[in-house]
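Attaching the record inline, Q. Sequence:
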Amino acid sequence: MDEAGSCASGGGFRPGVDSLDEPPNSRIFLVISKYTPESVLRERFSPFGEIQDIWVVRDKHTKESKGIAFVKFARSSQACRAMEEMHGQCLSPNDTKPIKVFIAQSRSSGSHRDVEDEELTRIFVMIPKSYTEEDLREKFKVYGDIEYCSIIKNKVTGESKGLGYVRYLKPSQAAQAIENCDRSFRAILAEPKNKVSESSEQDYYSNMRQETVGHEPRINMFSFEQQSEFSSFDKNDNRGQEAISKRLSVVSRVPFTEEQLFSIFDIVPGLEYCEVQRDLYSNYGHGVVQYFNVASAIYAKYKLHGFQYPPGNRIGVSFIDDGSNAADLLRKMATQMVAAQLASMVWNNPSQQQFLQFGGSSGSQLPQIQTDIVLPSCKKKAPPETPVKERLFIVFNPHPLPLDVLEDIFCRFGNLIEVYLVSGKNVGYAKYADRVSANDAITTLHGKILNGVRLKVMLADSPREESNKRQRTY
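Structure, as predicted:
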């Protein structure tokens, strides 16, 4: 389509080619009469906000209008409101055919379709983990009528992940929320539900070619720390005030898919989830990555900040302040590392257990359990002669926990008969006198890290199916 534009003689700011879609969704596409002059367009659309430019598409040879025009607004909410109120209207009393108004697709996109309304009404926000859906609705209802709110929760624990969605009835309301809400919410347009972009590969590489030509980076709506991340990728840069958490923000000048984001950050063990976000105010790629522990997040931040993917495009990685106490997180991480080293030393050389004693004669041989999960209080073991109702199979990575620590962990669910390790293997077993207690242990401990060791806890095979040659060690 030839966009032979014409700007109003009134002057004013005219955006360059690189600014046509900044902020995104601020340009509307019009199907009008071939005889509609630009002055009428300016008169009818200026009440909705600041118009930066108007383009009437004309034939290259005859210079006659093709009945198509574009209007560029300063804000996305202005363009959305113009679409909502002018679509299906007649521009003048003499017009018999109503005009059509859509939000224009980004010029950098490989797709030529116009943006659909439902893509513009749902926003993605970062919220305190203490927020309920009612709290979320209360914060965002000032911007318009809300269809629904939802909070992303951990499927196992039911706890909030500090992320949520707000769906409005109108695109202009969602745009108003993004433009005016507190920046701590980092509100952006959410990706459409159950939708896979047919041109994702084309979008990805077309944007890569555009961004590597040498254009200056565009302003983004995210935190100021991220903006500086693109200007310097010095890994020795020590930001004393930077928050530390298990959650990372990822920014790229080239859009990426969730699969690409996962493949990059899954290099570091402990990845819990990742999610690609859509930013209303830039064409950058944005994503959120969360790890099970702060050690993995710190390592990923250090190793992947400035990583080139694809070659020539550097990604920026920064911590997202989720309200966690950085000193506590670092102390817990250091304690886990020391505990893991001590446990490894004991496992490889049992004679070194004496070095774990505190105070020489106190008899306390192991540090306290260090983990991010909440464990029940200690309970008494069941008598050794109690019938076994359920056996659990335990896998340790990178090495087994000391036996008394293991017993301390698994007895907290009640009805534990015994726990033991398989000699020379990174596996062990726990016997319970009650199936409910065994299932509680699986639910709480499977996949979790305790004292620097990741556990896999699952139901064991029946004794008949196992080798009789297996020996247990104490």
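The CA atoms of residues 375 and 412 lie 7 Å apart. Residues 326-348 form the longest helix (23 residues).

More tomorrow.
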